[in-house]
Specification:
heterodimer, A: about 260 residues, alpha/beta, Rossmann fold, four-stranded antiparallel β-sheet, 9 helices, about 35% helix, B: about 325 residues, mainly alpha, ABC transporter involved in vitamin B12 uptake, BtuC, about 75% helix, globular
Chain lengths: ~260, ~325
């Protein structure tokens, strides 16, 4: 699935965050948006999912996003916001079942096929064992997996996540990265995410998009994009990208501000 | 863990059965108790036998009241359940969106200024409730109706209408009898014609709320999540609030203002069966019927032969119970 934006301009309440942006994302792999705070990564993510309306055009597989029925869109892509409302008093299974909503009628009646998919989504994310527990009682890492399970139940062709690893400890961060990678490889589901951690972006991504001031600074493979020159210019920090023997990904070592 | 899941669905079935049994029991009790007391056998025979001497009391006086209690309990609770999900606010009830204040000001005006038209108070109250709700939504509208803006606009409109009601009452302090009785929500002296009105309005509202289960489940997860699930959030919130306002307004027009049912009952139902509206909505509606039946029964019996209006009973008993729920919630961290 290909997502393409041209002459895109978006903002909030009259404040323009992205003035004029062109991007084409080939949704086969894992694509990560990087950039300093306020550069417009989350805004771009929301615009690409149709959550924020603005000027310009966005096309999904050649079809314009504007005018697409929300329900049709919800079957193509799923978006996980960074800040979320406290979940209601609902079990994990009921919560994941909500992912089927775009495929169901008014009464949210579950067909055998819906139940199979919910079961599969819970297995895939490792939350099947907690299906009867309340979502509120879960830890941050467990909750995050439940949210991803609900997104999977939606059967999207592309999954958008806004800083999914924030607030998770390192074990859960790595677990989540592996899960996303595996979902991408085994299901062919495109993954587009916003991250702050540069090393993590290097490891997980096939493509990296670096943003500055609402525009695109660079777009390419991690090796092409994540360089000490980029870190100096975009983040204003001195850093070295050091290859490590026996590892595919280099180490990013920071030496302070420029 | 599979057990956990199955236990929960069983819970729901047991809950619903128990609630239906409770409604039957309370109804029977309500038919028995009153200025004349009857045995269950007498009641049953009066229902079947047209020549029964007590038929008039049971069928024309007590039965409409029982059925009305059930219908009103269901409608008020459905309205509260919808609003709490739609506003992401556990404190939402029909009062928040102006139903009570709108109905009050119009009813008061009719009672005091044109007493000749007081027979049409239900119609005016219904219109007033919906008009206040529409005013609140149009004030809160800015390319969509954000729950916080709705609640704030609600506070403003409610204060304004409350002031107007008080002013009207102050200027006509001698004829408040009818107004006060109406405002305290009473089920006394109701006939079959009111039951028919309530049943007609109520069944439409209840059908609409049953058809909203999916949207309710999606909206309670938050606007962004709901939008991501293909729900048109702004439009859905307005439609669902409209259904809630309609449900509440129809009860207000028939029985006056009965508070706390729409606020408390959804909480209890949520604690019992969880927040999945497929299970919660029916459980809440049945529980609402029980609560109103019980409140009216209490009001009829505690200081008999004087009757306490059901609205007053609900406020006196509902307030403390609500506090108890809040404290309990804090402790269990729900």
């Amino acid at each position: 699935m290909i997502v393409a934006a041209s002459k895109l301009s978006v903002g909030y309440d009259g404040r323009v965050v992205i003035p004029d942006l062109e991007i084409t994302i080939d949704g086969q792999g894992v694509t990560t948006f990087l950039g300093p705070n306020g550069c417009g990564k989350s805004t771009l993510l929301k615009a690409l999912t149709g959550l924020l309306r603005g000027g310009g055009t966005i096309e999904i597989d050649g079809q314009p996003l504007r005018g697409m029925r929300p329900r049709t869109l919800a079957r193509k892509l799923s978006y996980l916001p960074q800040v979320r409302l406290a979940p209601p008093e609902i079990t994990v299974e009921d919560f994941v079942s909500c992912g089927r909503i775009p495929h169901q009628g008014f009464m949210q009646r579950s067909m055998p096929r819906d139940r199979e998919i919910v079961q599969w989504a819970m297995e895939e994310t490792g939350v099947l064992g907690m299906r009867g527990r309340g979502v509120r009682e879960l830890s941050g890492g467990e909750k995050q997996r439940v949210y991803i399970a609900a997104a999977l139940a939606q059967q999207p062709r592309m999954l958008f996540l806004d800083e999914p690893t924030t607030y998770l400890d390192i074990q859960h961060q790595i677990g989540l990265a592996q899960l996303l990678r595996r979902l991408n490889r085994s299901l062919g589901m495109g993954v587009i995410l916003v991250l702050h951690d540069i090393a993590q972006a290097y490891e997980i991504s096939d493509e990296v998009v670096v943003m500055v001031d609402g525009g695109i600074y660079a777009h390419g493979t991690p090796r092409e994009v994540i360089t000490s020159a980029m870190l100096r210019e975009v983040y204003r920090v001195n850093a070295r990208v050091v290859p490590v023997e026996g590892r595919a990904c280099p180490l990013v070592a920071f030496d302070g501000l420029t | 863990m599979r057990d956990g899941q199955e236990r929960r669905t069983l819970d729901t079935r047991v809950c619903l059965t128990a609630l239906i049994a409770a409604i039957c029991l309370l109804s029977l009790l309500a038919l028995r108790v009153g200025s004349a007391k009857f045995t269950v056998r007498q009641i049953l025979s009066s229902l079947l036998d047209a020549s029964s001497p007590i038929r008039a009391i049971i069928i024309d006086i007590r039965l409409p009241r029982v059925i009305l209690s059930i219908l009103i309990g269901m409608c008020l609770t459905a309205a509260g359940t919808i609003l709490q999900a739609v506003m992401h606010n556990p404190l939402a009830d029909p009062g928040v969106i102006g139903v009570s204040s709108g109905a009050s000001v119009v009813a008061t005006a009719v009672f005091l200024i044109m007493p000749a038209a007081s027979r049409s108070v239900p119609l005016f109250a219904f219109a007033g409730a919906l008009a206040a709700c529409a005013a609140i939504y149009s004030m809160a509208w800015r390319g969509g109706a954000d729950p916080i803006r709705i609640v704030l606009a609600g506070v403003a409109v409610n204060a304004m209408l409350g002031g107007a009601t008080s002013f009207l009452m102050l200027m006509n302090a001698d004829d408040l009898q009818g107004v006060l009785a109406w405002m305290n929500g009473s089920l006394s002296a109701k006939s079959w014609s009111q039951v028919r009105v309530m049943a007609a309005y109520g069944s439409i509202g209840i059908l609409c709320s049953a058809l909203s289960v999916k949207s309710l489940n999606a909206l309670q997860l938050g606007d962004e999540v709901a939008r991501n699930l293909g729900i048109r959030v702004g439009r859905t919130r307005v439609v669902l609030s409209g259904i809630a306002a309609y449900l509440a307004a129809s009860t207000v027009s028939v029985a006056g203002i009965i508070g706390f049912v729409g606020l408390i009952v959804p909480h209890v139902a949520r604690m019992a069966v969880g927040a999945n509206h497929k299970r919660m909505l029916p459980a809440a509606m049945l529980l609402g019927a029980c609560v109103v039946l019980l409140a009216d029964l209490t009001g009829r019996t505690v200081v008999a032969p004087v009757e306490i209006p059901v609205g007053i009973v609900m406020s006196i008993l509902g307030g403390p119970f609500f506090l108890y729920l809040l404290r309990r919630r804090k402790r269990t961290g729900m």
